[in-house]
Amino acid sequence: MILSAMDKETRQKLRAEPGKLVETVRDILRSTAANQKLGFEFPNAVSGYGLIDILKAVEKARTLAR
Prior knowledge:
The protein is mainly alpha-helical. Helices cover 53% and strands 0% of the residues. It has one domain (2-62). The protein is elongated and about 40 Å long.
């Protein structure tokens, strides 16, 4: 879903650098996850980065090239 939300040009630029696409998707997931819904304030060993908020993640992916 995150990849399909990115425009074609952004995906191609990220694929041109080894590991950059994976790193970008990982950063999007981490920065949009909601740990507070699990009762934690910060990422930790129990909950990791929290629940994935796919709506926020897709929106962030759409705005990468802007």
